[in-house]
């Protein structure tokens, strides 16, 4: 019997890449590959890359430099190591990768992972293989299902891709070019995936897509279903305790999604809704096709049906032409909304996007200073939100043993990590926890007697949040 070959895969960037990495592992399991934690003893190393900001792309090339040395070392000891670059850098840069890093054997774009076994064979024969087309067939029809043991090993929370690509063309963003046009998977396929996950112990499903609430997959009735209707269907699957979705665009929040938040207890009251800027002038230059006021109205629609709902967002500072006044509008919006957390990034010009051609750039010093102010405001809101949990009883889905002996860690509805001293058999259960203290971003508490469970945490809109 031939020994299994070792696969090391390193993912950068978004949740979609985490999911894609798992599907590549599942695909290569059929070729006799098993995962290894170290690149040095691997027969195949895959870098699953991110192109969203320059820093993310450049990391890949420095990692490839290290891998070249590991590959040469393997060759000296008579072992072959193959290197593959997957993900959005692969899609955007294609042959340029091989030119800059000749040790790379395979370059594969995000729509072609199902061709990986074939590409590896081609690389063995021809020296290298590159595939960055958008193939006519849908990769999901060809990617094998994960084995039961693999699902169990990945824990009680899983991502499921329901939608890929984006047709929005925000002027700063590479996604429409690297991931292609918006495509939604049919409802039946998603239901099959979720049933299989739930049958194998997964309790929390996060539906993912670059623009997940633009979902419009074909339903059993032959019609196109919106995300809200899909969520209703998935909530009926036994074993699915929690549902989430990410990432959403404010313009695609429709009534079906709002109703899902009103009607489905399994749908967690925590929504990631990127706005990018609070300035209408900058939003227009970004081609976001909404104003700050439109965004606030969307938030109000969610809050009208679910008072305990909380939000996170993405912001870009230093978009070309952003004035101090524009930036103040962003701070004002953040103060008005009151977030449970948010990501903020310095604008990074991406080759091929319209914003990269814009002349009115913001200086590095101004960008740094604005980022610091924005992050300070967001941090203060996040810590107010977390502190407000102290003294309340909240539901926690327990995920795994924590680093400290005897502690088990789980997540609240708002994805806050929560630690308790408890036996490991609570893993996989949603239990009420009385929150006693906060240590950085982690809540610490005790399992509450079920009779405590009715005591609700204060609604986020009642929590004092501000600069
Ligand atoms: N589809 C989502 C949306 O509509 O906002 C987000 C997709 S993108 C993978 C994640 C985040 O990266 C964006 O929300 C944006 O804040 C940030 N981002 C995208 N392009 C960027 C750029 N050129 N410079 C800095 N940040 C960027
Ligand atoms: Fe990029 Fe999101 Fe805009 Fe699409 S909607 S172009 S993924 S930022």
Q: What's the SSE blueprint?
A:
Blueprint: E1 5-11, H1 15-29, E2 33-35, E3 44-49, H2 54-76, E4 82-86, H3 87-93, H4 95-100, E5 106-108, H5 116-126, E6 129-131, H6 148-153, E7 157-161, E8 163-164, H7 175-178, E9 183-184, H8 187-199, E10 204-208, H9 227-235, E11 242-246, H10 255-263, E12 270-272, H11 280-285, H12 292-305, E13 310-317, H13 324-337, E14 341-346, H14 364-387, E15 393-401, E16 407-411, E17 417-421, E18 430-439, E19 442-447
Parallel strand pairs: 1-2, 1-3, 3-4, 4-5, 5-6, 7-10, 10-11, 12-13, 13-14, 17-19
Antiparallel strand pairs: 8-9, 15-16, 15-18, 16-17, 18-19
Bound molecules: S-adenosylmethionine and iron/sulfur cluster.
S-adenosylmethionine binds at residues 14, 52-53, 172-173, 175, 210-211, 247, 249, 274, 276, 314, 316, 345, 347-348, 350.
What oligomeric state best describes the polypeptide chains here? single chain
N-to-C span: 64 Å
- Helical fraction equals 25-40%
Whole-number radius of gyration? 23 Å
What is the approximate shape?
A: globular
**Helical stretch count?**
14
Number of strands: 19
Query: What is the spatial order of strands in the main beta sheet?
Result: 2-1-3-4-5-6
Low-confidence stretches: 451-467
Instruction: Please tell me the overall pLDDT.
Output: 92
Q: What ions, cofactors and ligands are bound?
A: S-adenosylmethionine, iron/sulfur cluster
Main sheet makeup: 6 strands, parallel
- Residue fraction in strands: 15-25%
Q: Please state the structural category.
A: alpha/beta
């Amino acid at each position: 019997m031939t020994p299994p070959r070792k696969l090391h895969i390193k993912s950068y960037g978004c949740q979609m890449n985490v999911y894609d990495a798992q599907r590549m592992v599942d695909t290569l399991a059929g070729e006799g590959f098993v995962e290894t934690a170290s690149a040095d003893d691997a027969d195949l190393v895959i870098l699953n890359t991110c192109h969203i900001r320059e820093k993310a792309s450049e990391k890949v090339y420095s990692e490839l430099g290290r891998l070249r040395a590991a590959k040469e070392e393997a060759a000296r000891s008579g072992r072959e190591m193959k290197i593959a670059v997957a993900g959005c850098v692969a899609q955007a840069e294609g042959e340029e990768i091989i030119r800059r890093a000749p040790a790379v054997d395979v370059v594969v774009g995000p729509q072609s992972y199902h061709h990986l076994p074939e590409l590896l064979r081609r690389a063995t024969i021809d020296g290298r293989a590159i595939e960055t087309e958008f193939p006519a067939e849908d990769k999901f029809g060809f990617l094998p299902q994960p084995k039961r043991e693999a699902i169990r090993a990945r824990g009680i929370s899983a991502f499921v891709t329901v939608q890929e690509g984006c047709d929005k063309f925000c002027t700063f963003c590479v996604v429409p070019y690297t991931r292609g046009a918006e495509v939604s998977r049919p409802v039946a396929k998603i239901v099959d995936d979720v049933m299989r996950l739930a049958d194998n112990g997964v309790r929390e499903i996060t539906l993912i897509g670059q623009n997940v609430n633009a979902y419009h997959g074909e339903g059993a009735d032959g019609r196109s279903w919106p995300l809200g209707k899909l969520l209703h269907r998935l909530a009926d699957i036994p074993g699915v305790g929690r549902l989430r979705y990410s990432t959403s665009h404010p313009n695609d929040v429709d009534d079906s999604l709002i109703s899902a938040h009103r009607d489905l207890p399994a749908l967690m009251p925590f929504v990631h809704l990127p706005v990018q800027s609070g300035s209408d002038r900058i939003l227009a230059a970004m081609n976001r096709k909404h104003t700050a006021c439109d965004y606030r109205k969307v938030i109000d629609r969610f809050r009208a049906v679910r008072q305990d709902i909380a939000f996170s967002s993405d912001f870009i500072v230093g978009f070309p032409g952003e004035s101090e006044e524009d930036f103040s509008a962003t701070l004002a919006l953040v103060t008005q909304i009151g977030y449970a957390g948010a990501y903020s990034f310095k604008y990074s010009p991406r080759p091929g996007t319209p914003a990269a051609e814009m002349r009115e750039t913001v200086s590095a010093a101004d960008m740094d200073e604005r980022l610091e102010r924005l992050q300070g405001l967001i941090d203060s809101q996040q810590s107010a939100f977390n502190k407000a949990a102290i003294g309340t009883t909240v539901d926690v889905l327990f995920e795994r043993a924590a680093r400290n002996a005897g502690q088990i860690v789980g997540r609240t509805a708002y994805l806050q990590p929560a630690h308790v001293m408890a036996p490991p058999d609570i893993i996989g259960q949603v239990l009420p926890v009385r929150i006693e203290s906060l240590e950085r971003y982690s809540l610490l508490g005790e399992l509450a007697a079920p009779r405590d469970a009715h005591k609700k945490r204060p609604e986020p809109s009642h929590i004092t949040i501000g600069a």
